[in-house]
Amino acid sequence: xxxxxxxxxxxxxxxxxxxxxxxxxxxxxxxxxxxxxxxxxxxxxxxxxxxxxxxxxxxxxxxxxxxxxxxxxxxxxxxxxxxxxxxxxxxxxxxxxxxxxxxxxxxxxxxxxxxxxxxxxxxxxxxxxxxxxxxxxxxxxxxxxxxxxxxxxxxxxxxxxxxxxxxxxxxxxxxxxxxxxxxxxxxxxxxxxxxxxxxxxxxxxxxxxxxxxxxxxxxxxxxxxxxxxxxxxxxxxxxxxxxxxxxxxxxxxxxxxxxxxxxxxxxxxxxxxxxxxxxxxxxxxxxxxxxxxxxxxxxxxxxxxxxxxxxxxxxxxxxxxxxxxxxxxxxxxxxxxxxxxxxxxxxxxxxxxxxxxxxxxxxxxxxxxxxxxxxxxxxxxxxxxxxxxxxxxxxxxxxxxxxxxxxxxxxxxxxxxxxxxxxxxxxxxxxxxxxxxxxxxxxxxxxxxxxxxxxxxxxxxxxxxxxxxxxxxxxxxxxxxxxxxxxxxxxxxxxxxxxxxxxxxxxxxxxxxxxxxxxxxxxxxxxxxxxxxxxxxxxxxxxxxxxxxxxxxxxxxxxxxxxxxxxxxxxxxxxxxxxxxxxxxxxxxxxxxxxxxxxxxxxxxxxxxxxxxxxxxxxxxxxxxxxxxxxxxxxxxxxxxxxxxxxxxxxxxxxxxxxxxxxxxxxxxxxxxxxxxxxxxxxxxxxxxxxxxxxxxxxxxxxxxxxxxxxxxx
Length: 714
Ligand SMILES: [Zn+2]
Hints:
Elements: E1 2-4, H1 7-13, H2 54-75, H3 82-109, H4 113-134, H5 137-148, H6 157-173, H7 179-208, E2 212-214, H8 224-236, E3 243-245, H9 249-258, H10 262-273, H11 285-301, H12 307-312, H13 320-351, H14 363-375, H15 379-382, H16 388-403, E4 405-410, E5 421-427, E6 432-441, E7 451-456, E8 467-475, H17 488-505, H18 521-532, H19 538-544, H20 556-565, H21 570-589, H22 600-611, H23 627-630, H24 640-658, H25 664-675, H26 683-691, H27 698-703, H28 707-713
Parallel strand pairs: 1-7, 6-8
Antiparallel strand pairs: 2-3, 4-5, 5-6, 7-8
The chain binds zinc ion.
């Protein structure tokens, strides 16, 4: 559930590192749709005419044009002003940003050897290009001059914000340093980009290297939907009468939750947690050692105590201490809760006649057995009511009620794959808002997980430009002729990504670089996680959870048991997440000699020991496949999900307090101060303007069933 926002992040988040052989690329077609105005309705991207071979020349030309634009800014004779420096600089960024966003469709949704080859070449070219601009002394001198006069400048608040944010970007990249230090920071950032690309590439390939191919008699306990998915995977691999389980997380979690074959659970679990530490070509230990050291060195040069201090300075938390405070405040009650869950699992195992200890690969299975018994819930009973089409309609309904929106499918907009569906989003009074591309199904060449990506940022700088965004899931394609059903987790993910999409779509700002989701990680997840609260609302389920064949709504008793069960096993889930979040902070708190030569497995083990973590609940993401922090933009930032959860729990409470989960006045304040503001206001101020006060942590603890545990434990 990551979010892809900027060009460079996008490129370095995913794959790369194939042999570079430009001769192997297809010839560049004559006219490049990336460099022309779209002829399609609403300026939609001409995906039908677009080929991956269009990207190298488009990147080259866009980089050259931005360099020329920067040169024009620095050649201006008159004194630096907002109008002659910041505005043209802002304009100069748009084209390359957009091409990069479109390229992310190829790297994330349509990957191939050709895409990977271009990606590995251009990830590093683009990283260098960006660094060259941010470290250009003449450009920075002008940006700094405008920043120094900001208090006296006659500018609107949003323009002042742009000047401040842009200045900060230059300083954070090292622009204010002496030439030697500046060069060192540039080299470290370049190397970081290469290592991150390598890390993500290794993870993809080590994930793909393992498959568990089973026969029909090995499927005991697995629900029909899971069997169908595994049969479909086997079919795509050309394997007859087999059921294939990969190391993709949803696949693994399903298997560990439902399979009664303990030997196979252990096998899959071990393969899953060993990714990146197999001693093969895709081993990630060396990459981690180097990343930790170079990030610490860069932070020190930039004047920060650690990489964590550098990262949090540009986030809502502001300091690593604030982030750690929150993590630790939740850790103790979560651990206590997990220990009592463990006791109950052990009891139910022994009363059920199990004669083995509870191991990490057993937890999900026995927890599910207990959950089904306690809440009388059978996933097979639930599944027919979770039709993908209806759940999507439910998410649109919630967005429509909150923000007065309509979603209308468009069939005249080109798509990049037949799976993709396009919806035009409009205000109920008719105002056009933007386009939403929905790409739901897993397939080869599409990366795992779920994410939102912005294809075109909203702005009014040069006339109104509306947002085009994509939402991506990895639902198993249903067998031919059957409608897709999804799990509760997948339903939450669908709502989550729509929350990110709304943040992009509802944006109403002047400057593209401040629009939509261009906010820190610990704030951006708030808008997404807020939407998840609606999945388990009776009002939503009653309308949309309808049986696929009979059309009957989910029976009220089933619905209520389902809602009650949604808080089950929260100690496990919280501890699993927090272990990863805390280890992320620990790696990135290192400085000086301590940050050199870190051995990831030993470091991780010592950290878990220090935290008093449970052997039965390993980190949600172990170091060697922790893409968030070593392949992408969440380093020292994995805590963001919990930080944002404080906001979304407290924010949803604002609706609950009114007795109306769609309370119109509250929803208006949420849109006006949060969803539409992008990065134009201070994040905490924006939240307070919506809520009327600072966020409180209690609703989060209550939602996770940890409130009582905290009172008795502290
Ligand atoms: Zn997210």
